[in-house]
Amino acid sequence: MEIFSFNTGNLRLDGGAMFGVVPKVLWNKVYEADENNYVTLSMRSLLIIDGDKKIIIDAGMGDKQDEKFFSHYFISEARTFDEILKERNLTVNDITDVVFTHLHFDHCGGAVQYNDERKAVLTFPNANYWVSKEQWYAAVYPNAREEASFLKENILPIEESGHLRFLANGYKLTENIEIRTFVGHTEGQAIPFITYKGQTIVYTGDLIPAVANIPLAWLTAYDMKPIEGLEEKEKFLNEAVENNYVLFFEHDIYQECCTLKSTPKGVRVDKTFSLEDWKKELN
Hints:
Radius of gyration: 18 Å
Order of helices and strands: EHHEEHHEHEEEHHEEEEEHEEEH
Strand order of the largest sheet: 9-10-11-12-13-14-15
Number of strands: 15
Distance between the termini: 13 Å
Strand content: 25-35%
């Protein structure tokens, strides 16, 4: 099994939204905002090669929307999948599976692109596209608060292509990749638990977007069910400490991975490191 990290680009969002009820005087010390209160976030994905499977986990924002849309998010350092995969001597045709943690535009947009005729086509034409059934229906029939995060041009072409696949809680994509679902951020968020050389690394998606979000109360204002999210986050953090999981962060511009420890104030970060450094330690 091989596992690689890559970033599809960075975006900026309001810092208050990323840390919810936590006052700026606290969160700004650990995740600094600019003069307009924006924080910079990565859109970091994983490429996993496991036997015959070549798997992408989350696909960034893509480039289908207009200039006005992208001006709201201050995109920087954007990269195409052709560029990214070429570094691994792969092409988009080689990818067998795409797993979406959820269908908010910054997690799935890059998996569908426009061709020269402005028709929406799959970026990975030979891949199965995996999402939980709960998240699919939340995206296709959204509530008023979450509706702006679900863009039909990112979602409906997947179903129309015939490549849509549903996964349930506990689904085993391979012997080494188990997908578990969480409801706090959005219905049916799918979080991959990956076994690599005897250790578990968890792609935390928006369950825990960044190291700064590890303390229990530091939930984002984007979470649809904060009370349920608080409960599932606490359970997950305790499990992660007990089993020495490595957490892999999709949105933390500063830190890629960490381990955790128990403290009198609750579960906190122990060590931070890159995925590559962690892999070297295991070799």
